[in-house]
Amino acid sequence: MKLLYTLNQQPPTGLALLLAIQHLLASIGGIVTVPLIVGTTIGLPTVDIVALINASLMVSGIATIVQCLGFGPVGIRLPVVMGSSFAFLGVAIAVGKEGGIASIMGASLVGSLVVIASSFYMDKIRQLFPPVVSGVVVTLIGLTILPVAIKWIGGVAETDAEFASLMPLLLATVSLAIVVVVSVYGRGNLAAAAIFLGLAGGYLLALLLGLVDLHPVADAPWFGQPAPLKYGLSFSWSAIVSISLVYIVVIAEATGDFIALGNNCHTDVSGNDLKRGLLGDGLGSSLAALLTAMPLASFSQNVGIVSLTGVASRFVVAVTGGLLLLSGLLPKLAALAVTIPKPVIGGVGLVMFGMIAYTGIRMLSKTQDNKRNALIVCIGLASGLAVIFEPRLLQHFPSELNTFFHSGITTGTLVTVLLNLVLPQPHTDE
């Protein structure tokens, strides 16, 4: 796929801002939702939940800028958006209910050292990811997060009788249709803004239909500021182990995201590149813990945006980082973005997440067609999807292993890597 702007090209200022906004709109909902759910569930007062959200936005912005631009040995220098990860949601709630927010931050700080330590071995780890393994991992990233977009399209909780009523389906369909039409018939910069236009068109329709709740904007404060170590840090062995296991999951997902991004940006990702990226990831989560924010991970949906729009400029996503930082300092801006109805984001998400799966399939199409690779691909994909389609497969596992393997990306990655190591290479006549 031809790139409109390559990795090191800088689009004109106005266009760069527009392209950065579509990355912002695709990611800000997740960044805000994680601290919102955790804070509400463990009983934080509203003012502290707002502070947790502000800090998460600011740290996400800082980490995104570092990953895109790079500072010395830190940052992969690819268009990576960093943000609060849903992977930590369940374990953070469990730890927070037992030990409070201080226990979450303490365990996150120690757990981030796992990512930092792992980064120094990425030269060796990269060798475990030849194209057949990378293709499976990237395909799994796309397939396992597609259900998220589908749930967003429903508009409300799946148990609600109004789930997937006609109005949410209309919003999702219109948003998706705009993205498709602009991508197919648009040219140059117009096609590059397909995601933004899809979100804007769906949002405008929702406004006209009276489906947008603007109260969060009115209720949000004008200014926010970080509160370093607001709750202090407490350290529990069980909390540290639980959150460290999730960080291992994040390492696998980040490796897949970085390789997929490199593929979409038409650049090879070396072990040293992965080292810089994981180091940025780990240090970002360390900073998050110190500033009382949720731990970070790379955002897969933004990988799909690069593939769809053909804009691989890391400077565009660096601007997104600046907007995230600004949103943390000016909470009303963040609140405005959060008012976008979920069906609108879900309709656009079908393309974003599907594009990630397409990237993986494209990588697999370039591998040798033989029985060994077919087994690796089939079993790797099946094992990763199995724990997504039927989570009860893990119900008799110890809780720590359940936490580790519940991610289809982690399970599929481990199975695929192991198969690639143990299966013999085919004979030349196969």
TrEMBL record:
<dbReference type="InterPro" id="IPR017588">
    <property type="entry name" value="UacT-like"/>
</dbReference>
<feature type="transmembrane region" description="Helical">
    <location>
        <begin position="101"/>
        <end position="121"/>
    </location>
</feature>
<feature type="transmembrane region" description="Helical">
    <location>
        <begin position="76"/>
        <end position="95"/>
    </location>
</feature>
<feature type="transmembrane region" description="Helical">
    <location>
        <begin position="165"/>
        <end position="185"/>
    </location>
</feature>
<dbReference type="GO" id="GO:0005886">
    <property type="term" value="C:plasma membrane"/>
</dbReference>
<keyword id="KW-1003">Cell membrane</keyword>
<keyword id="KW-0812">Transmembrane</keyword>
<feature type="transmembrane region" description="Helical">
    <location>
        <begin position="373"/>
        <end position="389"/>
    </location>
</feature>
<feature type="transmembrane region" description="Helical">
    <location>
        <begin position="404"/>
        <end position="423"/>
    </location>
</feature>
<dbReference type="Pfam" id="PF00860">
    <property type="entry name" value="Xan_ur_permease"/>
</dbReference>
<keyword id="KW-1133">Transmembrane helix</keyword>
<feature type="transmembrane region" description="Helical">
    <location>
        <begin position="231"/>
        <end position="252"/>
    </location>
</feature>
<feature type="transmembrane region" description="Helical">
    <location>
        <begin position="49"/>
        <end position="69"/>
    </location>
</feature>
<keyword id="KW-0813">Transport</keyword>
<dbReference type="GO" id="GO:0042907">
    <property type="term" value="F:xanthine transmembrane transporter activity"/>
</dbReference>
<protein>
    <submittedName>
        <fullName>Xanthine permease</fullName>
    </submittedName>
</protein>
<dbReference type="InterPro" id="IPR006042">
    <property type="entry name" value="Xan_ur_permease"/>
</dbReference>
<feature type="transmembrane region" description="Helical">
    <location>
        <begin position="192"/>
        <end position="211"/>
    </location>
</feature>
<feature type="transmembrane region" description="Helical">
    <location>
        <begin position="344"/>
        <end position="361"/>
    </location>
</feature>
<feature type="transmembrane region" description="Helical">
    <location>
        <begin position="128"/>
        <end position="153"/>
    </location>
</feature>
<feature type="transmembrane region" description="Helical">
    <location>
        <begin position="315"/>
        <end position="338"/>
    </location>
</feature>
<feature type="transmembrane region" description="Helical">
    <location>
        <begin position="12"/>
        <end position="37"/>
    </location>
</feature>
<dbReference type="InterPro" id="IPR006043">
    <property type="entry name" value="NCS2"/>
</dbReference>
<comment type="similarity">
    <text>Belongs to the nucleobase:cation symporter-2 (NCS2) (TC 2.A.40) family.</text>
</comment>
<keyword id="KW-0472">Membrane</keyword>
